Amino acid sequence: MSQNRPRFSRAAILEGARRSLPVQVAVVPFGLVCGVAAQAQGLSLAEATLMSGLVYAGSAQLLALSHWSSPAPVLAAALASFVVNLRLALMGPVLGPWLDRLRGWRLWISLFVMADQNWAMSVTQMQAGRWDAGFLFGSGALMWVVWVASTAAGHALGVTMRPPAGHPLFFAALAIFVAILVVMWRGQRDIVPWVVAAAISMLFAWLLPATSWYIVLGALAGSGAGVWRDRRRRVAA
Amino acid sequence: MTLDPWVLAAIVAMAAATFVTRAGGYLLFRAFSPPPLVRAMLGYIPGTLFVSYVAPALATGGVQQWVGALATAAVMLATRNLALAILGGTAAAGVVWAAG
C-alpha cells in the first residue's frame, strides 16, 4: 500500500517550501550574523558564500569562525563542525520511514538539506501520517537558498547591518522550537522523558558549552528514560 | 573574489564533517538495524531533542526569553499556526527588549 504513495512528489516539495516560510524569517538574522563574522575574520565574499553553501550549518559555522586563524584551522574547524552537528546523526534515523523509500540523488540531497527546523516540521508531518519526503527537501532547499543569500548579504553589507546581541530577532530561532514542542507534546507519557531531557541538557550545557553534546546527551537520556519507564510498565502489567 | 587554499581546505573539511553527521546516523541505522530498545527510543527523540535545545536556553536566558517563550506557546496552543506563534512570541520578546 505504502509502495504506491508518492515518495518525492513536486506537490510535496512545493508544500514544504510554502509551509516553511515562517521559519525562513528566523534564518535571515543568523545568516547576516554569520556573514558579518566571516567578513570580520577576513574571509572574502566568495569564501563566506561557499562556506554557507557547502557546510549549511549555522551554529557550527559561527563556532568555527569565532576560533578562526591564519592559515585557516582546517582540523579544528572540521572537529568543531562534527561536534556541534552530532545532533543531526540522531535526527536522520527518526525520518527513516521517509528516507528508506528514497534512492540515489534524492536521498543524498534530502540528507544534505536536513537541518533542525525543516527536520522538526517534517517529523510533525510524518506523525500526521504523511509519506512524501519531498516535504523535507522542499523546506530544506528553500532554507538553503535563504541561508546562503543572507550570509552573502551579511558579508556585503558588513558591520552596519549587524543586529545587536539580544535583539528580539534572535529570539525567533528559539520561538520556532518552543512552538514545535507544543505540537510534539503527546500528553502524560512525555512528562518523564521531557523532564529528564531538560535536567540532563541543562547540566551538560553548563559543563560542556559551545558544543552540541548537551543536546545529544539530553535527548538520549530523556528518550532512554521514556523507554525504560515503558518497559517497567509492561513488566508490571 | 579570492579563494585562499587554506580557507578552501577548511571549508571542505567542515562540509565533509557536517555531511558525515547528516548522513552517518541514518546510514548506520539502516545498515545495522539496531535492537528494539534503540528503535523505541527514536519515538521519543523528536520531543526530547528540542527540549534539550530549549531548556538550557531558557535557563540561561532572561525575562525576554521567558516572556517570549510563554507567548509563543500560548499563541501556538490557541491557533496551531507556526507563523503566528513565531510572530507573537518574537513581538512579546521585542516589547520586553524595548522596555528594558
What attributes does this structure have?
heterodimer, A: about 240 residues, mainly alpha, B: about 100 residues, flat
What report would you give on this structure?
The complex is a heterodimer of chains A (237) and B (100). Chain A has two domains: 2-184, no CATH class; 187-237. Helices cover 75% and strands 0% of the residues of chain A. Chain A has 13 helices and no strands. Chain B has 100 residues and is mostly helical. Chain B folds into two domains: 1-33; 46-100, no CATH class. In chain B, helix 4 runs antiparallel to helix 5. The longest helix of chain B is centred in the N-terminal third of the chain and has 28 residues, at 5-32. The interface between A and B is large, with 98 and 74 residues.
Mean pLDDT of chain A comes to: 90
* Overall helicity of chain A: over 70%
What portion of residues of chain B is helical? over 70%
DSSP strand tally of chain B: 0
As for the number of domains of chain B, it is: 2
Strand content of chain A: under 5%
In whole angstroms, the N-to-C terminal distance of chain A is 34 Å
How many helical stretches of chain A?
13
SSE string of chain A, helices as H and strands as E: HHHHHHHHHHHHH
* Strand-pairing-aware structural class of chain B: mainly alpha
Tally of domains of chain A: 2
How would you characterize the largest beta sheet of chain A?
none
Short recap of the structure:
The complex is a heterodimer of chains A (237) and B (100). Chain A is an all-alpha fold and 237 residues long. Chain A contains 13 helices and no strands.
Write the layout of secondary structure elements.
The complex is a heterodimer of chains A (237) and B (100).
Chain A (H helix, E strand, L loop, with lengths): L9 H10 L1 H20 L4 H11 L2 H9 L7 H11 L1 H9 L1 H4 L4 H9 L3 H12 L6 H24 L10 H17 L6 H17 L5 H24 L1
Chain B lengths: L4 H28 L3 H7 L2 H16 L2 H17 L2 H18 L1
Helix pairs in contact in B: 4-5
